[in-house]
Amino acid sequence: MAFRCDLIIRDATILDGTGAPRFQGDVAVEGDRIRAVGDLSSASGAREVIATGRALAPGFIDAHTHDDRAVLCGPACQHCKVSQGVTSVVVGNCGVSLAPLRVSKRPIPPLDLLGDESWFTLGSFAEYADALGRNPTNVNTLAFCGHMSLRVEAMDGDVYRAANDREIAQMQSRLREALQQGAAGFTTGLYYPPNAQAPTDEVIAVGEALAEVGGIYMTHMRDEADGVLDSIRETLRIGRETRAEVVISHHKCSMPENFGRSTDTLALIDRMGQDQPVAFDVYPYPAGSTVLMPDRLRQDVPVQITWSVPHPEQAGRNLDDIARDWGVTRKAAAEKLLPAGAIYFQMDEADVRRIMAHPRSMIGSDGIPHDAKPHPRLWGTFPRVLGHYVRDVGLFSLETAVHKMTGRTAQVFGIPDRGTIRPGAFADLVLFDSTTIRDMATYADPTAQSLGVEEVWTNGESVFAAGDITGAAPGRFIANPRRAA
Ligand code: ZN
Ligand code: CU
């Protein structure tokens, strides 16, 4: 096969994203697509990269992010992601989406993890897609519509109750419109106080739009602690009634008394998953992060502050230390810090590993991009899986790890032509050294860049090389893949 193309990456160890065994070969790129894979010694490229000894994988898909706003502020805002090899992000998680919602005062938590009122200016999903087109970035975006954003609008901010029929009808029609305009599905965050009073029937009624237009139901479940099994049953019921495929967000068993229960949750998911499609994402750390909630603090769960509006100087510090310095109780200190965000050390390492190793899992960072001292998952998730969990711990093979970051994720979300290396697929690619790749971000130094990622291409364009972003912004909006034709 003699031909000329834009780029050939030669003699790489190819992990094609399907989970199949690695093989040596060349990959040719023409424009935004992969043209050929194999022995391409008779072809030539305008640029050729010799990749001997390095791994080449499909660009990673971050299955769970809160990057709704970060994808609107240019390539530098996704430095944390492309430096890990990420080329696509899934936004709008946990019921929190930037669109469709306009607000005039600071949005209630956790909506405010996306920013203050100045960011909530997009009254429809069409406007969101349009904003992405006008402010291009270096990753592709698959966007969901959040229940909480719909509630704040339909209930005019009065959200600490169940919605009435008129409000439900409005949410349903807004969701229908969003799905038609490109939203990939509907997310909820029933755990959070502003949504916890939404009964299952409210979610099903709003989610009716999923059955009509097509889309996925994805959820931060009502309870990830004592009631986790009931929450899984509720989630799967919502999926059945709305005829939607289900994704359980950041699956975990929270709080010390629930350590070890992932054996039961995974068995339940597998049993119910015989009759309906269900997947979950997971991040590779035994600590979570979200807004600071003083009413939910526990003495046996250490807390580290990630940001605080009135006390920005306390970001990165342990809540107990702050309380001691201030001479007040933990709860009083937390109340003084509001609005604020926190890291909660509330999981068991054995559960994290069991959930990650399960065949239904996908890797999602759940990184929170605008925090002053974020959870290290924002900068470290993907190299942590490939370095720490594959190479150091031996939890699963490199092929399996890459699959959970690429082919499996593309399949679960139905993303066309991404997540695998094959002729005709989009040229989203990451070149890395599997012997040195490593996360450097820690709880103390959370924005340290990972090591071992050499170059990253999105839609055929180099977006990360020589340890830095290139400034190119070839990312695209991926319109609802499940929308019925
Ligand atoms: Zn969440
Ligand atoms: Cu989340």
Question: What's the gist of this structure?
Answer:
The protein is an alpha/beta fold and 485 residues long.
Q: How does this structure look, described?
A:
- The protein is α/β, with parallel strands linked by helices.
- It has helices spanning 79-82, 125-134, 147-154, 165-180, 193-196, 200-213, 228-241, 262-272, 319-326, 330-337, 349-357, 377-392, 398-405, 407-413; strands spanning 4-14, 23-30, 33-38, 44-50, 55-58, 60-62, 86-91, 101-102, 121-122, 140-143, 145-146, 185-189, 216-220, 246-248, 278-282, 288-291, 303-308, 340-344, 361-363, 429-432, 453-458, 461-465, 468-469, 477-478.
- The protein folds into two domains: 59-289 and 344-416, TIM Barrel, CATH 3.20.20; 290-343, 2-Layer Sandwich (Dna Ligase, domain 1), CATH 3.30.1490.
- The protein is built from 14 helices and 24 strands.
- Strands 1, 2, 3, 4, 5, 20, 21, 22 and 23 form a nine-stranded mixed beta sheet that branches. It has a six-stranded parallel beta sheet with strand order 11-12-13-14-15-19, with helices on both faces. It has a four-stranded parallel beta sheet with strand order 6-7-10-24.
- Helix 8 (262-272) links the parallel strand 14 (246-248) and strand 15 (278-282).
- The radius of gyration is 22 Å and the shape is globular.
- The structure holds zinc ion and copper (II) ion.
- Residues 64, 66, 93-94, 220, 249, 366 line the site of copper (II) ion.
